[in-house]
Amino acid sequence: MTAPSVGAGEAVVRRYRPADRDAVAEVCLRTGAAGGDATGAYSDDSLMPEVYALPYVEYAPDLAFVVELDGRVGGYVLGIADTEDFIDWYAREWAPGFRERHPAGAPPTARRPAYTEAQLVADGADPERMRIPELDDYPAHLHIDLLPELQGRGLGRRLIDALRAALAERGAPALHLGIDAANVGARAFYERLGFHELASSRPDAPRFGIATR
Questions:
Q1: CA-to-CA distance for 117 and 108, rounded, in angstroms?
Q2: Which of these, 75, 112, 127, 166, is most buried using a 10 Å CB contact count?
Q3: Per-residue pLDDT at 8
Q4: Residue 69 bridge partners (DSSP)
Q5: Are the beta carbons of 121 and 113 closer than 8 angstroms?
Q6: Of 56, 199, 211, 210, nearest to 133 (Cα)?
């Protein structure tokens, strides 16, 4: 997989295409360490995308939007309108194959990430982790990532605005997301957009929500 590179041209936010799959996986990996590059952090670089990106484009490609710049994908937002249905689909269609590919976490690499490989493998096999207490009021959820060189250009807001509009059209009244507690920049970003902390949020696992309209 070739790492995407981006330049200084005009970025375009557009809907996901099947040809974007590898680039989405690469962006997920390169932003998977609290916003930093997770390449080599785990024994298998496919782990992070297989938990936090690829199931989303498999299940709901029509709720995925990417940032394209100079012909390269450098960021995305991936959405789910009905998290409960996604949990059921994940348990039935995605988790069995994930468990076969990743039956157990390998010993720590030299990077020794705070989010260990054992935790990542366990999360990838357990869709019930997505069943938050506020799911009735915030049924949708998202994942968003931008390469560092694309941050600070207003592209994150454009991605989330595009997804919120698409979710509203689907009838989803509100969405939620979780962030890495170490990613203080992400917390500030969501608060600027009007996200508020949910009751189930914890210092070690912050969780935010917002209406789609």
A1: 7
A2: 75
A3: 53
A4: 72
A5: no
A6: 199
- Per DSSP, 19 falls in state G
The per-residue pLDDT for range 153-177, each reduced to its tens digit, is 999 999 999 999 999 999 999 999 9
The residue type found at 24 is V
Q: Is pLDDT above 90 for 21?
A: yes
**Residue 99: C-alpha distances to residues 96, 107, 123, 204, 209 (Å):** 5, 17, 11, 26, 30
Check: CB of residue 137 under 8 Å from CB of residue 101. no
State the amino acid at position 207 in one-letter form.
R
Euclidean distance between CA atoms 179 and 156, whole angstroms: 15
Total length of the chain: 213
Strands 140-146 and 174-178: what pairing?
Answer: parallel
At residue 169, what is the residue type? E
Question: 210 phi and psi, to 5 degrees?
Answer: -160, 150
* CA–CA dist 187, 100 (Å, integer): 35
